[in-house]
Design goal:
By secondary structure, this protein is α+β, with helices and mostly antiparallel strands. The chain is built from 14 helices and seven strands. Strands 3-4-5-7-6 form a five-stranded mixed sheet. The chain is elongated.
Length: 454
């Protein structure tokens, strides 16, 4: 009940502060500036497109249309800067026009085929009527609201300088209604207060439409944004693969390879002593046998780090149970999936849980942890929780998501999951444990014939 009361007071304060807040005035300034700018943009665009289309029967229409498109892209730059300055809307610039052939004709052709340029033309055309509507509505509400609210301070102008006792609101023949009585003045003030409090919400609603127009027509296209995102994800995948290869090379060179070289030297010495001192040779062979076992264990650990056999053979449930059994605290594992996910998704899920449980063992100081994996719609969700110190990502010794010690940490996990259009969310209040939720796209594992296995 206290929380609801505090929310109600907070909402009331925001409503009362709305008419004088900087955000409202900046939005109002955006709408006021929009009409003169859109008038210029609309006039030049319509004139240029009409003239260019009319001259297409001659060669002059082609470069003229290209020039109009370039001009509209310039208008878009102005509009993005205005939205950024007054609305705080960050919109990336569209991709520049890249001619396929050098020279002026190549640039003209690329400009005429540029979809972003034509969206800028569309914006200049449709924004004009919208800006007229937004300008009239916002200015009328703003002016009438403040005028009525402050009516007690200026209604004396009418009897002092005119033959009217107050503001005239109605006249029919000889009958006229003026706002001159105390009751009329109070009612007018209350009406002005209501309009003044409602106007900020209307202004923000109008600017929301402007934001949608700027975002949809003046920013990068969805295809261009998706290409940029895929290029970034490809870079992350390449970097991650290169880092994994370097790790494997380092582990082989410093671990199993060095141990096998020492083993070969010991066996060589044992061979030389076999005839002269059989007992010493037997001891050396016995020691070499122990080194072989250690080398085999290191190779198994390395293979498990690349891709565990239990994941390939028995699936995610068994693989995560194996990882949980090696954790320093008791871990409850629950996997509820209708089928095995694709191998790439399954591998990312495995290494994500492995990394997070590793951090639980090293940093969380938890008594227990849990791993839950389930399918929701077209997404696979992974939740790793512990009851440790919390504060993940903020200080050393935090829980599930700190990423100190071995592994790539939160940053590496976020990049690896983001590379397949996944999301990583960390909730880790200090002293309240840590919950990390990973969301991955759901794709079922293909069968031997290439079909999706149920």
């Amino acid at each position: 009940m206290v929380g609801r009361g505090e929310d109600g007071v907070g909402n009331m304060v925001r409503v009362l502060r709305g008419p004088v807040s900087r955000r409202t005035w900046r939005a109002f300034g955006y709408l006021m500036l929009g009409l003169p700018l859109s008038t210029v943009f609309f006039t030049l665009t319509i004139t240029g497109v009409s003239l260019g289309a009319g001259l297409l029967v001659t060669f002059l229409g082609v470069p003229l249309l290209a020039g109009v498109l370039a001009m509209c892209r310039g208008f878009g730059h102005v509009e993005r800067a205005r939205a950024r300055a007054l609305l705080g809307l960050e919109i990336a610039d569209p991709a520049p026009v890249r001619p396929s052939k050098p020279g002026g004709m190549g640039l003209i052709g690329a400009t005429l085929k540029n979809g972003s340029a034509w969206r800028h033309v569309l914006y200049c055309v449709i924004h004009f009527p919208w800006s007229v509507f937004a300008f009239v509505v916002s200015l009328s509400l703003w002016a009438y609201g403040w005028a009525f609210l402050l009516y007690p301070a200026w209604f004396w102008v009418f009897p002092a300088f005119t033959d009217q006792p107050g503001l005239q609101v109605f006249q029919n023949g000889d009958y006229a209604l003026h706002l001159d009585s105390p009751a009329d003045i109070v009612l007018t003030t209350l009406t002005g207060l209501a309009l003044t409090l409602v106007t900020p919400a209307v202004i923000h609603g109008l600017t929301a439409v402007d934001k949608a127009l700027v975002t949809g027509l003046l920013g990068p296209s969805r295809l261009a944004s998706r290409v940029t995102e895929l290029e970034s994800d490809r870079g992350v995948v390449v970097d991650t693969a290169a880092a994994d290869l370097r790790r494997i090379e380092r582990d082989l060179h410093d671990g199993a390879q060095a141990r096998l070289v020492a083993l070969a030297m010991d066996l060589g010495l044992a061979k030389e002593k076999l005839a002269d001192d059989p007992q010493a040779a037997a001891r050396m062979v016995d020691e070499a046998h122990g080194e072989v076992k250690v080398a085999l264990q290191e190779l198994r650990d390395l293979a498990r780090g690349i891709h565990p056999a239990v994941l390939t053979d028995r699936g995610l449930d068994a693989a995560l149970s194996s990882v949980a059994s090696r954790c320093a605290v008791p871990v409850r594992v629950r996997v509820d999936l209708p089928a095995r996910p694709a191998a790439a998704i399954e591998g990312i899920a495995y290494f994500t849980v492995s990394e997070l449980l590793q951090n639980v063992s090293k940093h969380a100081r938890a008594r227990s942890a849990s791993v839950d994996v389930w399918k929701s719609g077209d997404r696979m969700l992974i939740e790793v929780a512990d009851d440790g110190l919390g504060g993940a990502g903020h200080s050393h010794g935090s829980g599930t998501g700190t990423g100190h010690g071995s592994g790539t940490g939160l940053a590496g996990l976020t990049e690896r999951i983001g590379a397949v259009d996944g999301v990583l969310v960390v909730e880790s209040p200090t002293g309240g444990g840590t919950t990390v939720t990973a969301e991955l796209p759901w794709r079922e594992q293909a069968g031997a014939d290439g079909s999706r296995r149920a």
